[in-house]
Design brief:
single chain; 193 residues; mainly alpha; 8 helices
Length: 193
């Protein structure tokens, strides 16, 4: 059964996650807090995976798919209205990770999976570009890697583990959520702890 248009992800769903994170006084060193942030990220990645699956299986055409992706992206990447600066920073990290997921999904719909290099090559090129402070190129390489993940390729975890902490590692973290979502697009329940 296909999902009715506009029901892949809602502002209300995103806001419920934000409210829960705000209530729980999130501490990134705490395992439950870290899991809550990861669930927030995975939940949005699952919405993207479901849209892409409906695109590949037929209910959505290219235009409708891009519209759905844009709708979810606008919800997830919108400014956060939370007073606690540390919480905002943590959610900003999730948004940063998901940025690459949205761009990869849009690129996949527009151009298909990149095939000029391997995922490892793209991520290493992204890390090199980040080291040279060419963030646009770094994001572009991560997006190319993301299109391959959507196309069914595996993200090698050792590549992710070798990354210095920075934007590329954040984007690859988002791609890891996307890979999980593509292989098992089960909904993360908001009330799971």
């Amino acid at each position: 059964m296909s999902t009715p248009p506009g029901e892949y992800y809602t502002e209300e769903r995103w806001q419920n996650w934000l409210d829960r994170i705000e209530e729980e006084d999130v501490d990134p060193e705490d395992e439950d807090s870290a899991r809550l942030l990861l669930n927030l990220q995975d939940d949005a990645a699952i919405a993207v995976a479901k849209i892409l699956t409906d695109y590949e299986d037929g209910p959505l055409d290219e235009e409708a798919t891009l519209d759905e992706l844009t709708g979810v992206r606008e919800i997830v990447l919108d400014d956060i209205d939370i007073d606690d600066e540390e919480t905002v920073m943590l959610i900003d990290g999730v948004q940063t990770s998901l940025l690459c997921v949205f761009y990869a999904a849009e690129e996949f719909v527009a151009e298909g999976a990149a095939n000029d290099a391997t995922i490892t090559d793209y991520i290493e090129a992204a890390a090199d570009a980040e080291a040279e402070e060419d963030l646009d190129a770094a994001l572009g390489y991560c997006v190319q890697a993301g299109t391959q993940i959507i196309g069914g390729s595996e993200l090698p975890m050792e590549v992710a583990e070798d990354l210095e902490y920075g934007l590329v590692s954040e984007w690859v973290n988002g791609l890891d959520s996307l890979q999980t979502a593509m292989s098992d697009p089960e909904v993360v329940e908001e009330d799971e702890s």
